UniProtKB/TrEMBL annotation:
<keyword id="KW-0554">One-carbon metabolism</keyword>
<comment type="pathway">
    <text>One-carbon metabolism; tetrahydrofolate interconversion.</text>
</comment>
<dbReference type="Pfam" id="PF00763">
    <property type="entry name" value="THF_DHG_CYH"/>
</dbReference>
<keyword id="KW-0378">Hydrolase</keyword>
<dbReference type="InterPro" id="IPR046346">
    <property type="entry name" value="Aminoacid_DH-like_N_sf"/>
</dbReference>
<dbReference type="InterPro" id="IPR020631">
    <property type="entry name" value="THF_DH/CycHdrlase_NAD-bd_dom"/>
</dbReference>
<dbReference type="GO" id="GO:0004477">
    <property type="term" value="F:methenyltetrahydrofolate cyclohydrolase activity"/>
</dbReference>
<keyword id="KW-0486">Methionine biosynthesis</keyword>
<keyword id="KW-0658">Purine biosynthesis</keyword>
<feature type="domain" description="Tetrahydrofolate dehydrogenase/cyclohydrolase catalytic">
    <location>
        <begin position="5"/>
        <end position="119"/>
    </location>
</feature>
<dbReference type="InterPro" id="IPR020630">
    <property type="entry name" value="THF_DH/CycHdrlase_cat_dom"/>
</dbReference>
<keyword id="KW-0028">Amino-acid biosynthesis</keyword>
<dbReference type="GO" id="GO:0004488">
    <property type="term" value="F:methylenetetrahydrofolate dehydrogenase (NADP+) activity"/>
</dbReference>
<keyword id="KW-0560">Oxidoreductase</keyword>
<keyword id="KW-0511">Multifunctional enzyme</keyword>
<dbReference type="InterPro" id="IPR036291">
    <property type="entry name" value="NAD(P)-bd_dom_sf"/>
</dbReference>
<protein>
    <recommendedName>
        <fullName>Bifunctional protein FolD</fullName>
        <ecNumber>1.5.1.5</ecNumber>
        <ecNumber>3.5.4.9</ecNumber>
    </recommendedName>
</protein>
Length: 287
């Protein structure tokens, strides 16, 4: 039976460390601030934004949500982002995705000041993945590393297989594992014989959005399996991994819900604190 990697427990530990760090920063009169830009009234986005706001307040971060209507023009959205870029009290700017169809998401994400790019989606940060040192890794990817580290799962030298190459999860996660010296294979929709690759994985990250994609036969005995999928099947949330069979064979596995999900918001807070430190503290302050 695999060890269950409980995201809620790990996220609670991250939050505890962060609350202390934020309290120390506030003693140095550094008050980290996150601004979330929310366009339109999609219920799921609104609920994600509320949970971000709630966790920020809980930890002593300042958080502000800028709500814009679904028919906001691209130029007005950009103007709002530029106001945040120019505001010295703001450390982190997050544009909640997805944006409405009439808005060019790539263009908007390029408008965020790269030093305030808390999601790590600005091309300048993406370019920094290539040298293994972005200012911050995207929140889900950062959460995966946090899980591996806190589970004492080695990464260097391991064979890591990432199923999925979205720019939000799959691609940055493969880059992060490579930066930590894993041997990385990235699979995607056109990969032939997926199982031949996944069966080699010491670390298997699945972010494909396909319920039941990975079954026990597709997994090496003892592997660490990180399931990033969130699918609704018959009213229940399930991942991309068939938990009941894979749990019998893997060495460790994240459940869905309650695995990677709880880490994602916590890592947004951690990224905000990191950007605040980089912007506001000199090397001497950091000593
Ligand atoms: P997410 O945001 O969770 O990464 P996306 O829907 O944006 O999800 O991306 C899904 C990714 O998963 C894509 O890169 C796609 O190529 C990959 N994918 C989807 N289905 C399969 C599959 N059956 N086998 C391998 N990769 C897949």
């Amino acid at each position: 039976m695999a060890r269950i990697l409980d995201g809620k427990v790990i996220a609670a530990a991250v939050k505890q460390d962060l609350a202390m760090e934020i309290a120390q920063l506030r003693e140095k009169e550094v008050q980290p601030k996150l601004v979330v830009v929310l366009v339109g009234d999609d219920a799921a986005s609104a609920s994600y934004v509320r949970s971000k706001e709630r966790m920020a307040r809980e930890l002593g971060l300042e958080a502000e949500v800028i709500k814009l209507s679904a028919d906001v023009s691209e130029s007005e959205l950009m103007r709002q982002i530029e106001l945040q870029n120019a505001d010295d009290s703001v450390d982190a700017v997050l544009v909640q995705l997805p944006l409405p169809e009439h808005i060019d998401t790539d263009w908007v994400l390029m408008g965020v000041d790269p030093t305030k790019d808390v999601d790590g989606f600005h091309p300048q940060n993406i370019g920094r993945y290539a040298i293994g040192s972005p200012l911050v890794w995207p929140c889900t990817t950062a959460g995966i590393l946090e899980i591996l580290e806190r589970a004492n799962a080695p990464v260097a030298g391991q064979t890591a297989v990432v199923v999925g190459r979205s720019r939000i999860v799959g691609w940055p996660t493969a880059q992060l594992l490579l930066a930590h010296n894993a041997t990385v294979v990235q699979c995607h929709r056109q990969t032939r014989n997926l199982a031949e690759f996944t069966r080699q994985a010491d670390i298997l990250v699945v972010a494909a959005g396909q319920a039941g994609l990975i079954r026990a036969d597709d997994v090496k005995a003892g592997a660490v399996v990180i399931d990033v999928g969130i699918n609704r099947v018959d009213g229940h949330l399930v991942g991309d991994v068939d938990f009941d069979s894979v749990v019998q064979k893997a060495g460790a596995i994240t459940p869905v819900p309650g695995g990677v999900g709880p880490l994602t918001v916590a890592m947004l807070m951690k990224n905000t604190v990191r950007l605040a430190r980089i912007r506001r503290l000199t090397k001497e302050d950091e000593r």
